[in-house]
Amino acid sequence: MKIDWAALGSVFGVSLVVTVALVGLFTLGIVALAKRETAAARGGSAAAAATGAYACFAACAAAVAYGIYLIVA
Amino acid sequence: MEHITLLLGIVIVTALVFDFTNGFHDTANAMATTISTGALKPKTAVAMSAVLNLVGAFLSVEVAKTISGGIIDEAGIQPEVIFAALVGAILWNLLTWLLGLPSSSSHALFGGLIGAAVMSAGWDSVNGSTVVTKVLIPAVAAPLVAGAAAALATRLTYRIGRGTDERATSKGYRAGQIASAGLVSLAHGTNDAQKTMGIITLALVTGGVLVPDSDPPLWVIVSAGLAIALGTYLGGWRIIRTMGKGLTDLAPQQGFAAQTSAATAILASSHIGFSLSTTQVCSGAVMGAGLGRKGGVVRWSTATRMFAAWGLTLPAAGLVGAGAELLTKQGTWGVVLTGALLVAGSGTIWVLSRRKPVTVDNVNDTGAAAEPAGVVTSAVAAVTPPPAGVVADGGLKATISSPDAEPQRPATV
What we know:
heterodimer; A: mainly alpha; 2 helices; B: mainly alpha; membrane (chain B)
C-alpha cells in the first residue's frame, strides 16, 4: 500500500495557507470599507481606507478567477 | 441510439437517477452555510447552485476514464454490474437523506461497485489497498484539513473584524459567502456530473454502442448536467438543515470562513491529486468554523451520527450492490425485479420522509434539526444513539458506539 503523504501534506498546507490568507484579506477589506463609511458619516473622507479595501477585494477576485481557471482546466 | 438494449436503457436511466440523488444530496455542500446564515434566501441559493452545477457540467469534457478510480478491476465489467452498483448507491443516498446525514455520494458509488463486483467476479476484482488510500484515509483527512483551515480562518476574521459595526460588515460577509459557495457549486458540477457521464459512456462502450475511448455523445452531457441541476434545485433540505444548523450555529463570519475553506480544500485536493470527498470537506469546514469562534460549540452527537454514516457508507452500499448483482445475474427477470425493488425502496423512503417533511419553509428551524424521526432511525440507533437530552449521557454513548462502527469496514474491505 502506498499512501501519498506528500500530496496529502501539500493539500493540507495549501488549504490552510490559502484559506487563512483569503479570509484575512477579505476581512481587512470589509473592515476598511466599514471605516470609510464611518468616516463619511462624520463628514470626513478616508481615501487610504477605500484604496486598501479595493486592493484587498481585487486580490480576492483574482483568487476566485484562479479557482475558476483550475475548475475549467 | 438504435442499438440500445433494454438493460442498457435501464442502466442509463438509473445512472441519471443516481446523478439526480447526487445533486440533491450535495446541495448542502455549497449552500447550507449560505442558507443558514441568511446570506441568500433558500430558493435563490438552490437556484444559483443548480445553474452553476449545470454550467460546471459543460465546462470540462474530460470525462472520468474510470468510474472507480482503480478500486475495482473494470476490465470486462458488465452493464448489470454497473446497474447493481447504482442501485446500492441510490438507496444509500436516499437513506442518508431521510436521516438528514451528509455522506459522500462518490463513496456510496464505490461501495455499490465493490459489492457488485465481488458478487460478480469474486474478491480478486477489488483492489483493497486502493480502497484504503482513496476512501478510508480521505474520510479521516478531509474534515481535519478543512476543519483546521476553517477554524483558523474563523479566529482570524473575528480578530481583525472586532470593534467594527456588525451592520457595516454583514454585506461584505454575504458577498464573500456567495462567491465561495458559487465556486463549490461549479466544482461540484464539473466533478460529479462527469462521473455520471463516465458511467453512461462506460455502459455504452461495454454494450457495444460506442467504440472504446470515445467522448460522451452530446445527449449524455446534456442529460447528466440536467439531472444533477434538477436534483440540486429540488434541494436536499434535510441535509441542508443538518449542515447549516445541526452541526453548529453559524454566524456570517463563520459561514464565510467555512465556505472559503471548503472551496479551497476542494480545489487544492483535486488539483494536487489527493482527492477528498466534497461532502466530507464541507462538513469538516462547518465544524471547524464552529470550533473557531470563542464559545462556539459543535453538536458532537450529530457529528458522531454523521461519522458513523461515513463509516457505514461503503459496507452498506456494498451489501445492497451485492444483493442487486445476485438478482441481476439471474437474467432479465432479475434485472426487472431489481428495478422494481429500487422503485419500491425509494418510494418507501419518500413516504417516510413525508411524515416529517423538511422543506424550503422550515429548513432553518433548529427545533428538530438533530432529531430525524421515523422507524428507520432505529436501524442507525443501534450503531449510534439519537441525541440524548442529557449531554453527558449522549457523549458517553457516543464514545462507546464509534468503535462499533469501525470493525465493519475491514470486514467488507
